[in-house]
């Protein structure tokens, strides 16, 4: 019974309002069992009636939804190669604290200490609230079962990051790869919500990939499927961050776009970014994206280059997976109007029309998608201890 109640909570988180019949179909349990568990959750003030379902010809069924006001909160941590954002969210995906973002390069020696400081700072904002767990998403070869990030040496505190954070904050911690979490969020709440086969590209400092196949997250044999950054499509001899040459990342990432812009700025090309570059000696990825959206010719040119190579990579995905949709998500999705024409041009050149014509290319419209994905990870991993804690604190 407790297991079924937990399954209902998770279903109502991801699918929002559901009738008894819908819950029965989704969870593969009988209507009487679902009804009994829902009634108990209502008594426990975890679930509330939420209006009537659309008519199907007979009496309209009652919908049920989570009572987010009576559920604990989730502390969500989204890390990328350079920046870390932390926020507290509820089971309705509403923020309950300000989003705190700090520059924390993962390769920096004190990155873990800075991360802990940022988490502690955020927890202070909700000092009297109940927090169930910490969800953390981070780039790298993340083993979500053990909570280990194999991209770091075993001597680094970022290696056994789940265990270390649990000891530090005395809360359950759930860890997942950033691109995987983004794919989960897009599939449940974003552009890929109504599709069974979706490839979600995380365009950030690298080029990650989350794969939804037949409505399930595909992890591969070792759990590391989706290393899109490192498929050998580049003709440049430039060394990738992985130590290999020819990786897509060196021509299709935001780092590549920023380097494109830097070369042009150093050559003296006119741009609204020139003053910032002359003063600081660099520009940020966000400054480049903003300039591109504002119509700056240099920024547009820098972004177009990565768009074309990204399209080449997407053509490869279409040929291998034949997805219904490819969603461009992550930080780089802001450059939709610059990138999309180049992606389409590349698809015309490199893909078979019979395949690519049936694959939709979409750009994420969800802000802070990685934080949302982190909340999804925390909820999906909630176990029997969640209900024990919830009932104890009612």
TrEMBL record:
Q: What is this protein called?
A: ROK family protein
Q: Which InterPro entries match?
A: ATPase_NBD (IPR043129), ROK (IPR000600), WH-like_DNA-bd_sf (IPR036388)
Instruction: Spell out the SUPFAM superfamilies in the cross-references.
Output: Actin-like ATPase domain
Give the family, as the similarity comment puts it: Belongs to the ROK (NagC/XylR) family.
Which Pfam families does the record associate with it? ROK
């Amino acid at each position: 019974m407790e297991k079924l109640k937990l399954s209902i909570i998770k279903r109502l988180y991801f699918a929002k309002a559901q009738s008894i019949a819908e819950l029965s179909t989704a969870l593969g349990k009988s209507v009487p069992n679902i009804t009994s568990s829902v009634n108990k959750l209502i008594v426990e003030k975890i679930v509330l009636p939420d209006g009537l379902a659309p008519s199907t010809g007979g009496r309209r069924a009652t919908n049920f939804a989570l009572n987010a006001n009576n559920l604990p909160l989730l502390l969500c941590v989204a890390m990328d190669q350079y920046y870390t954002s932390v926020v507290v969210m509820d089971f309705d995906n509403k923020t309950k604290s300000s989003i705190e973002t700090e520059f924390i390069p993962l390769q920096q020696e004190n990155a873990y200490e800075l991360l802990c400081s940022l988490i502690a700072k955020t927890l202070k904002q909700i000092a009297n609230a109940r927090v169930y767990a910490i969800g953390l998403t981070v780039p790298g070869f993340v083993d979500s079962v053990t909570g280990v990030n194999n991209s770091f040496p075993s001597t680094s505190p970022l290696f056994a990051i789940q265990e270390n954070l649990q000891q530090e904050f005395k809360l359950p911690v759930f860890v997942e790869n950033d691109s995987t979490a983004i794919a989960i969020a897009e599939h449940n709440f974003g552009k890929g919500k109504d599709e069974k086969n979706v490839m979600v590209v995380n365009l950030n400092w690298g080029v990650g990939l989350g794969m939804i196949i037949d409505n399930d997250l595909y992890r591969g044999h070792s759990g590391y499927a989706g290393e899109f950054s490192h498929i050998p499509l580049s003709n440049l001899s430039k060394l990738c961050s992985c130590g290999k040459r020819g990786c897509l990342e060196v021509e299709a990432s935001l780092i590549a776009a920023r380097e494109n812009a830097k070369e042009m700025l150093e050559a003296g090309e006119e741009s609204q970014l020139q003053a910032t570059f002359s003063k600081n000696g660099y520009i940020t990825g966000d400054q480049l994206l903003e300039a591109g959206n504002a119509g700056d010719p240099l920024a547009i040119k820098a972004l177009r280059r990565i768009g074309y190579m990204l399209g080449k990579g997407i053509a490869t995905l279409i040929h291998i997976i034949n997805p219904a949709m490819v969603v461009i998500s992550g930080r780089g999705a802001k450059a939709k109007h610059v990138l999309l024409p180049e992606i389409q041009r590349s698809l015309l050149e490199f893909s078979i029309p019979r395949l690519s014509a049936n694959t939709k290319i979409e750009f994420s419209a969800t802000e802070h998608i990685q934080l949302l994905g982190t909340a999804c990870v925390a909820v999906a991993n909630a176990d029997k201890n969640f209900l024990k804690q919830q009932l104890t604190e009612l």
